[in-house]
Each structure stands twice: as structure tokens, then as C-alpha cells.
Backbone:
């Protein structure tokens, strides 16, 4: 609050995950997107799934991806 930072949390179901996230970025005029690896469930280490790829290729703001504890890293 002291830094005047607004936070918006969103949870969605269905296959339009990337579209919903990109829409929320526009709606809230976001300056930063923070996502987890949850949009793409994969058993392949170092694999970025289709939802994450679409978000990363379409977004025009910085993205911070936080990995789940115990999950493989993307880097």
C-alpha cells in the first residue's frame, strides 16, 4: 500500500488460459505479469508448454515466472 502497488489475482478454468491472461493485462493496464508454471502441466523438464509460450510471445510487459517448489526449472 505504501508504494501504491495494485495486485490483481485471477484464476480461470478451460483452454483459453493465455487469452484470459492477456485480456486481464489489458484490462488492468498491468506493468508486470507474475505467473507460475501451473498454466502448463508437463512431465518434461525444461519444456515450456503451449499456454506459457503464447503468453511469452504475445505479452508486451515484463514477465516473472515463479516455479513451484520441487518442479523442474525452465532455465
Residues:
Amino acid at each position: 500500500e505504501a508504494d501504491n502497488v495494485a495486485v490483481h489475482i485471477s484464476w480461470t478454468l478451460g483452454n483459453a488460459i493465455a487469452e484470459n491472461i492477456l485480456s486481464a493485462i489489458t484490462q488492468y493496464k498491468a506493468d508486470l505479469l507474475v505467473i507460475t508454471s501451473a498454466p502448463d502441466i508437463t512431465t518434461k523438464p525444461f519444456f515450456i508448454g503451449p499456454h506459457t509460450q503464447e503468453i511469452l510471445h504475445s505479452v508486451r510487459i515484463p514477465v516473472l515466472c515463479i516455479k513451484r517448489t520441487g518442479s523442474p526449472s525452465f532455465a
